[in-house]
Amino acid sequence: MIDDSWFLGAAAALAEQPSRVQKLFRNSEYSKDGIFEVIFNLRDQHVHVSFDDRLPLGSNGELINARPASKDSGWWLVLLEKAYAKLNVNYANLHHGSPVEALKELTGMPVSQYQTN
After folding, report:
1. Which of 17, 51, 71, 86 is least enclosed by beta carbons within 10 angstroms?
2. From the centroid of its chain, how far is CA 82?
3. What is the reported pTM?
């Protein structure tokens, strides 16, 4: 299992506005060829990440981390996680991170963090 809960939390926050999730994906439907493209914002630049739908499985044959809501829906999170892993070279590089950083890269918008007790 990958410890990218910081990224998954940012993606979940983004999902509160489905139109923002849709804007990330260049594909409006599941690609017949299994090729997808996601647009991230790095240092105020749009970065396009193309990737395939081959997903990493554990020894038990199940997805290693994010899973769809059901077999028929909710694949956007699994695909977004793979795109973000590719943006960061591989899944291992997602082991540590910041939800603030992830939100900025997902939205391109200014993001603030507040410390609470």
Report:
1. 71
2. 6
3. 0.88
Burial of 111 (0-12, 13-18, 19+ CB in 10 A): middle
CB neighbour list of residue 66: distance below 8 Å, 6 or more residues apart: 8, 77, 78, 81
**Residue 29 class from Cβ within 10 Å (0-12 exposed, 13-18 middle, 19+ buried)?**
exposed
34 touches 53 (CB < 8 A): yes
Q: Which amino acid is at 16?
A: E
φ/ψ of residue 63, rounded to 5: -55, 145
Question: Which residue carries 């396009």 as its tokens?
Answer: 48
